[in-house]
Write a structure and sequence with these properties.
175 residues, mainly alpha, 2 strands, 58% helix, Retrotrans_gag_dom, Retrotransposon gag domain-containing protein
């Protein structure tokens, strides 16, 4: 409110209208939303996990459900803990050490962590693919050559290799 260019009376009216909106929402939910639906939302918030959802989908679902269970996530700290508990393990590990307790900041840091983690996985996958290509037989590693015999039989000669071990056909590693 201090950032607004208003006289104190206008700031007071704005603050009251915000309180009215919050109070109106509380009254509306209490009057028109059944207790069974509230209980279901409460269970859903407690059991909500990110799973295969994107960060935006998880955040939207969390916010949708949390508006029905204001008492459970009334404090910013409780809201953050509940949100953090539902994150995927790989994101929760990155975020938990920061101990962020502002909900909007927590969400932003989680999005950043996800964006940082995603390219890391792509780089690791590229490296794995590159290493597999490195292990594939190259021109310097030759297959056994068949030698013709005068009696018509074909025999297999010794393996000719200048690089050492040949990669396994099953796993691609050199044994």
């Amino acid at each position: 409110m201090d950032d607004l260019d208003c006289i104190p009376e206008q700031k007071l009216r704005s603050a009251i209208s915000l309180l009215r909106d919050e109070a109106y929402q509380w009254w509306l939910i209490g009057k028109y939303v059944g207790a069974s639906y509230m209980d279901a939302c409460r269970r859903d918030v407690l059991n909500l996990t990110q799973g295969d959802r994107s960060m935006a989908e998880y955040e939207a679902e969390f916010l949708r459900l949390s508006c029905y269970v204001r008492g459970m996530v009334a404090l910013e700290y409780e809201r953050c803990v509940c949100f953090e508990d539902g994150l995927r393990d790989n994101l929760r590990v990155l975020i938990a050490s920061q101990r962020e307790r502002g909900f909007s900041i927590l969400v932003e840091k989680t999005k950043i962590a996800k964006d940082v983690k995603h390219p890391e996985h792509q780089n690791i996958d590229k490296e794995r693919g590159k290493n597999k290509r490195d292990l594939e037989p190259s021109i310097s590693v030759q297959r056994p050559k068949k030698k013709a015999r005068s009696d018509g039989l074909v025999r297999v000669g010794p393996l000719v290799s200048t690089t050492g071990l040949q990669p396994c056909v099953i796993c691609g590693r050199s044994h």
